[in-house]
Amino acid sequence: MFVNRREVQIQWGDCDPANIVYYPRYFAMFDDSTSTLFEVAGFSKQDLVRKYGLVGIPMVDTRAKFYIPSTYGDWITIETRIESIKRSSFEVKHNVYKAEALAIEGFETRVLVGRDPVNPDKLKSAPFPAEMVAKFTGS
Known about the structure:
Elements: E1 3-9, H1 23-40, H2 45-50, E2 54-56, E3 59-66, E4 75-85, E5 89-98, E6 101-111, E7 113-115, E8 123-125, H3 130-137
Antiparallel strand pairs: 1-4, 2-7, 3-6, 4-5, 5-6, 7-8
């Protein structure tokens, strides 16, 4: 599986009054990590639009398990990979490490979406391109 790792320093604005990361901020970090995964794999947002006719990869489900809190100034590593791919939907997993310890597991279900060819005012799920499947799964 194709994996991307990125280092993130926790900022003042990420934290609540108790100086721990306010949990919705992690979901924003996960969203950035998914976008970065596609970019690093060679599929920029411009490619998704121009080459594949997609308008985005919206999230349809998300959840997380929190084990270790982070505070202002901490460095975390977010490791992101696509766990499985179906026709148009896919599962993303984010492992967040604080030093060597697993701090958070994040999960997303996303869908490739393009314009409906019958009615361009509507969106419709789009099949995962074979070259993307090969890149993300290694097959």
